[in-house]
Automatic annotation (TrEMBL):
UniProt name for this protein: ethanolamine kinase
Location of the region described as Disordered in the Swiss-Prot/TrEMBL record: 66-101, 277-298
PANTHER family linked to this entry: CHOLINE/ETHANOALAMINE KINASE, ETHANOLAMINE KINASE
Family per similarity comment: Belongs to the choline/ethanolamine kinase family.
InterPro entries in alphabetical order: Kinase-like_dom_sf
Length: 513
């Protein structure tokens, strides 16, 4: 097995093929991937322009030789069938692939437009790139895209962040193609499952619900540019916009397959785990005299939103604001000896209280704030969508899939509606989850996107959502306390976390009554 893989969607499953299948000694056209002639044209999609013939995935440059290996050593515990399943191949892949193997993988990448390159050992050092005019980043882009041949014609611009958290715009000035590169923030792997984010993006693109994703490296992603702009917080409740958001969220909840994502996540975890074992064995062989470093305990695999929050509780720091929040809202003394247990007990009560709603578990965005909702620049806020009941003409798209997980649909909805309060935390802007609230009634009607939906169905869905109105405050309150210790952004996360937790406490009082 190689240390780099192609990931693609086939037959309703996420599959993998070794990059070795396309290694070649030169960069001649004969050694590059090309899509069929009838697809070698500029394709316009809701996610912008990119040439279908642009993508090429060959890593034959010496500067990237550290990504390749002659073969992936088995740890001795996996059957031949398991190793083959890990890469989506019938047999374990090797460094040498015959002509038939080359043709098979070439055919796969021609047939399936949703595919990306996974480089688990390639690390982008932002600090050195900032001082070296993004030389390493330009070099990587040349090896990902066939027509990006001249480093001097690649323009790299930072859009957000600093040396530990950055979004970059990368443009080929020769042909105008543009992609985005995100380099992961400091410490974010503690709270975000990067394997799941990558596979989720891949699956969403296969359903035309996300821009294309081209490559994932050790600490970031390369993906397609989505034209348009992010909504402002106040626009979330605009009468011409909120039905479109509701309809698109309902579309997500109805069509994204949880099992496909989970299958892909398990495969990529297995692949990465075996790669780490190989590297560890190689390191020990090079330095047999040194003591073996202690192994990290196996991290619990996150499978849904409840698992995620419970993991966050295990690492949440004992900030002054967290202590105050629980002390002010519980009728017993809180100190460091019982704080974590109190947070965990509160979480378990919340999980039990919401379960009676029987909200269906779906693939949820889990972070649908205004900045993650894109609308076309030409959208008319006076006229709205010409056919708001037609999903195909819906101009709203969602971006940033870091927190995507299976979750009760009512949580994803309540989590979005909580964002109506904006960054000023004006809770009066959050719609009351009552059938008597016309805005809430219309939002749910658009979410169901069913002209035959009965009034009872709408009312029951509103009731279901109301059970989860306290969970977003708890979710983001714990998240913010963790961010207060790991983020380099100049923001008072602890105070923000206390404010969000208070949403939960206020909801709980009403819920109990």
């Amino acid at each position: 097995m190689t240390s780099s893989m192609y990931c693609f969607i086939s037959g309703g499953r996420v599959r993998f093929e070794p990059v070795d299948s396309f290694n070649s000694p030169s960069r001649s056209d004969d050694n590059h991937l090309k899509l069929p002639v009838n697809r070698q044209k500029r394709i316009r999609t809701p996610y912008g322009n990119i040439k279908a013939t642009n993508l090429v995935y060959e890593l034959n440059n010496p500067s990237l030789s550290d990504l390749e290996s002659d073969a992936h050593a088995s740890n001795g515990n996996e059957s031949e069938e398991e190793q083959g399943e890990e890469t989506g191949s019938e047999k374990p892949p090797t460094a040498t692939v015959d002509a038939a193997g080359n043709e098979r993988v070439r055919s796969i990448l021609q047939e399936y437009s949703t595919h990306a390159l996974y480089l688990p050992e390639y690390f982008v050092d932002l600090e050195s790139n900032l001082s070296d005019d993004y030389a390493q980043i330009r070099e990587l882009l040349i090896r990902v895209f066939k027509e990006w041949t001249d480093m001097g014609s690649i323009e790299v611009k930072p859009l957000t962040g600093g040396i530990t958290n950055m979004l970059l715009s990368c443009t080929n000035r020769t042909n105008g193609d543009q992609v985005l590169m995100r380099v992961y923030g400091n410490g974010t792997n503690l709270i975000i499952d990067r394997h799941r984010e990558f596979i989720s993006h891949l699956v969403l693109h296969s359903l035309n619900l996300a821009p294309p994703i081209f490559a994932r490296f050790k600490n970031g992603l390369v993906y397609g540019f989505l034209p348009g702009r992010s909504l402002a917080p106040a626009e979330l409740r605009h009468e011409k916009v909120y039905p479109l958001i509701a309809q698109q969220l309902g579309n997500w909840h109805s069509h994204v397959d949880h099992s496909m994502i989970q299958d892909g996540v398990e495969k990529i975890r297995k692949f990465t785990s075996s790669l780490k074992k190989k590297n560890r064995a190689s390191s020990e062989a090079r330095a047999p005299q040194s003591a073996t470093s202690p192994k990290n305990p196996h991290k619990h695999d996150i499978v849904d939103i409840w698992d995620l929050i419970e993991d966050w509780i295990k690492i949440v720091p004992f900030t002054k604001e967290l202590m105050e929040s629980f002390q002010e809202n519980l009728d017993f003394h809180i100190d460091e000896s019982n704080l974590r247990k109190s947070v965990l007990d509160e979480f378990r009560w919340l999980k039990t209280a919401t379960s009676s709603s029987k909200s269906p578990v779906v693939i949820s965005h889990c972070d649908l704030l205004s900045g993650n909702i894109i609308i076309g620049d030409d959208f008319d806020f006076t006229e709205g969508s010409k056919d708001q009941h037609n999903l195909e003409s819906n101009p709203v798209r969602f971006i940033d899939y870091e927190y995507m997980l299976p979750a009760p649909r009512a949580f994803d909805i309540a989590n979005h509606l909580a964002e109506w309060q904006g960054f000023d935390c004006d809770r009066s802007a959050i719609p009351d989850p009552s059938p008597a609230n016309e805005t809430m009634f219309n939002w749910v009607k658009a979410y169901l996107n069913n002209v035959n939906a009965t009034e009872d169905e709408i009312i029951n869905t509103i009731s279901e959502i109301s059970f989860y109105y306290g969970m977003p405050g708890f979710y983001w309150g714990i998240w913010a306390m963790i961010q207060s210790r790991i983020s380099n952004i100049d923001f008072n996360y602890s105070e923000y976390g206390k404010s969000r937790l208070q949403e939960y406490w206020d909801w709980k009082k009403k819920f109990i009554k």
